[in-house]
């Protein structure tokens, strides 16, 4: 066999791929891309475990000479204001409270948006009613409207309802369905065999019973995928919570990070504390993608989305 061929060889029931120049170049490029992707994350971690007074002295080192968890304790509000100021920090911002708010904000939106989007998608995929296709077309056309255009009318509505600085005011624009979520789930529901639903209807089942007891249980993969994508978007949401909730006790993590960055003593941000809080904000989404990232890719491929 020609040594430059890329076809696999079977050796004792194992597939062994030949090492070719093209394969070597591909692996080198992959390693470079991985390095480019992960190196900024390492800088965040390195800065977070560096003592505030030693940050600029050890800026050229890849690993701090005396790593410490002080910055994480500061970010979680586990040190006094005097101790925080003594190391060059700023006034305490309790990121633990902000993280709790982010978790509650994200869970509420993910659960409600996934459920309502599934209901709308099933209606567009299976139920027959006048103007269904036209309504679905107009619904998809809403994706062409920039999100920034909706901030002012949403803000006026929330203000008139008296929901400023409240949890319901923060989640109000996101709890219902979104065009992407409806389209994504509709593609999957269209592929479900109609025989399953027809058998249930013959037994006297209602449309909601079919949706709840048949469609949702066999749609776990796209539902989980949608929940993951919604979680990432909601966890990183900044602008709406920032303009609606000015109370420190209502701030989500992204807003708390911005407020922490803006408190710059002598014009220099508290980089170590900021990077510690940033790393805490990254951890939930990072774990989610590591554990369920493959499922997201497979589900998107199944639905025909690129």
Automatic annotation (TrEMBL):
Kindly indicate whether the keyword Transport belongs to this entry: yes
Q: Which SUPFAM superfamilies match?
A: MetI-like (SSF161098)
Topological category with respect to the lipid bilayer: Multi-pass membrane protein
Per the annotation, which location comes first and is thus the protein's main one?
Answer: membrane
Domain ABC transmembrane type-1 residue range list: 99-292
Cited InterPro entries: MetI-like, MetI-like_sf
Assigned keywords, A-Z: Cell membrane, Membrane, Transmembrane, Transmembrane helix, Transport
One of the protein's GO biological processes: transmembrane transport
TM segment ranges: 24-45, 103-124, 136-158, 170-189, 210-232, 271-292
Q: Which PROSITE patterns match?
A: ABC_TM1
Q: Name one GO cellular component term.
A: plasma membrane
Which Gene3D superfamilies does this chain map to? MetI-like
User: Which Pfam families does the record cross-reference, listed alphabetically?
Assistant: BPD_transp_1
Localization terms from the record: Cell membrane
The family assignment reads: Belongs to the binding-protein-dependent transport system permease family.
State the protein's name: L-arabinose transport system permease protein AraQ
